[in-house]
Amino acid sequence: MHPPPPSCIDAVAAIRFGRGRCSPEKPLLMSRPILSRRRGLAWLAALPILACTPPGWAAAAPGGADPAAVTAPIRALNAELLRIMQAGKTVPFARRYAMLAPTVAAAFDLPLILRVSVGPGWAKLPADQQTALLVAFRRYTVASYVDNFDSFDGEHFDLTPQPRPVPGGAQVVLTQIVSRSGTSHQIDYVMRQVDGAWKAVDVLADGSISRVAVQRSDFRHLLDQGGAPALMASLRRKVRDLSCRAASFGPSALLVRKSMRSSRSFLYCL
After folding, report:
1. pTM, whole model, 2 decimals?
2. Cβ contacts of residue 179 below 8 Å, gap of 6+?
């Protein structure tokens, strides 16, 4: 594992008033009772994230940010997640993907997340590989959400209306996902202003656990093994596996199982 950048611990500690840590070795174990029917929160904690801001990034937002503008993308994301959860597996995976994709694109700065996850080698990649990687990364991000938020058992999201400012111009939106029984788990979003719009560049599980170092390590391993083509192949394979797995348990399960043994499998998988 590679150590986090120097500013990482400082940024998270500011969020947690000195108690935060950011370490690629820190285990990302989620509370199971709240999502006993779903792996959603566990995946959300594993989303590519960027609270550990690499040195040299410019401040992305002025002080005095409008709280409603900062929190709006996360409110929309939470609402759409609940909608696909309530739709459940009776709605085809591709349709739920189409429902969620625009909201994910609006809520997250995925191009920036990808660039930082790839690291310094990003600038050396040909433009066509950068474009293809971004497409694959977007599809994987959305498909992972759809796969993991696939059923509903009375959960809801609570969002604190007033975001918390942190050094560097970022704002942290504080949220919780709450089960029917009242068990909750904290999920915080680090927001930066991108071309006038607020977007998430980080997700903190339990208010402190950042995954940027793990994301970068995973990508670096693939890039070291086979360059951008290896990373693209891995992301595309994961999208196909997620969508095919969902289809194989849906209303068309028998057709899918038959098609998986033929060249027609693409009809049921992304």
Report:
1. 0.74
2. 33, 34, 35, 153, 154, 155
